[in-house]
Amino acid sequence: MKQHVISEKHLPLETAVRLVRAGVDLKLGGKVLPTLKRARRVIENALRGKKPIYGVTTGFGALSDVIIEPAQARRLQRNILMSHAAGVGPPFVDEVVRMAMLLMIHGKAKGHSGLRPETLQQLTAVYNAGLVPVVPEQGSVGASGDLAPLAHCSLVLIGRGRARFGGRELSGAAALKKAQLKPLELAEGEGLALVNGTQFMTALAAWNVYRGRRLAKVFDIAAAMSLEVLLGSRTQFHRRIHRLRPHRGQTECADNMRRITDGSEIISSHRDCKRIQDAYSLRCVPQVHGASRDTLAHAHDVVETEMNSVTENPLVFEDGQVLSGGNFHGQPVALVMDHLAVALAEWASISERRIERMVNPQLSGLPSFLIEKDAGLNSGFMIAQYTAAALVSENKTLSHPASVDSIPTSANKEDHVSMGTLAARKARSVAQNTTQVAAIELLCAAQALDLFTNLKPGRGTLAAYRCLRKHVKHLGQDRELSPDIATAAGLIESGELVDAVESAVDALK
Predict the structure, then answer these.
(1) Of 135, 244, 345, 368, which is most buried by a Cβ count within 10 Å?
(2) Which is the catalytic residue, given 54, 127, 280, 465?
(3) CATH number reported for the structural domain that contains residue 472 in this entry
(4) What is the model's pTM?
(5) With the C-alpha atoms ordered 475, 481, 487, 491, is the resulting torsion angle positive or negative?
């Protein structure tokens, strides 16, 4: 199997996603082990000189003034993993844990954590073996990084905790044995190095951004389909309009909308109609979608920077300095995840308004709830709009920022915390809800397009319609809609819908 070499080089977000999804093995580059050895010598020299170093020869947090005897220094590192593994709730899914492990390996390979080479080799071997530590989602306040999640993750290295391997959940010791690995004994300072860092909030944030970039295209596709069946105009996408307000996201969305609807017989058929302007949910698509796109772009930059940062404490430098700082504080991730949640929620919000216009005959001129025959006996897409409304309302609650809250911890030593992992978890929930709303809009638009049997939609719209109809049949009479929504959401998640449209109109922005 092809390997990815871990080095000092920048790791793009999209590359990290590809590595995790493809199950690519990791290999430590030629410079990594010598770099680790040099940093480790700094720690060992300090130990010989009996120099106090936070977390190496002292306790943690509010106990940092307690000096640990040399004979107990290694036990201290084992204890930090066990004591900090206090997470609760359902476990993170495998892709989040493996992303966090990848980021741990990538960051610690830079040689500022004081880890021994064999410890990073053990972490890499566990990753390559396909062991996935069982890590509860709840318990991190995002201050000294993700203490509880990283402790649960690192326990497996020493044969404790729980791990998933070969489809089964096992004890850490049993999982290591199955993978033909031996438990590691931690040296001075290594337990602290393993639990300090922002890798879990950053891993979850990376997946949120990756899914957000796909949703940006999906909502442009859905809006284009809705525009056609609601007999909207393409005037609002004219280049001259957007040159006067050249926000990047707005310009990109307008370009997508033009290309998706290009060649539409439906739009051409009402070019000379008396309607002057469309409703905002159609006319302002570039402005609304585009603003969220710009937020997403900012989140991408921040998260990718965090992925390539060193967030441990203390930090070890080759010249012998060991510096305590605050790189573990998750505020950068917390703020952009809160902002991203709002941006994703806005896509769902304007989408739900387009759904309502399609199912409401007073607004659309289409059959009530998009059902042609026996209205009343059949309810069509009536309740699908209810579902979209419920999801949008839930998103409003989830969009309350986590980062504005702070509850001091560690006897007020850690008196301002980021709640970054909570912010990332909320953004993930908003992304999941928003995907379902997009699925509903796509299904409604496809149903409405069935009513335009004599007119062809734009090239991109037609490609999206055909992709949907390949998997979901027309609704002639009532049936359970939940499976249809799940199918459409699956087409979004897999990328099949976007691929189909891009094959017809080239790559969307």
Answers:
(1) 135
(2) 54
(3) 1.20.200.10
(4) 0.94
(5) positive
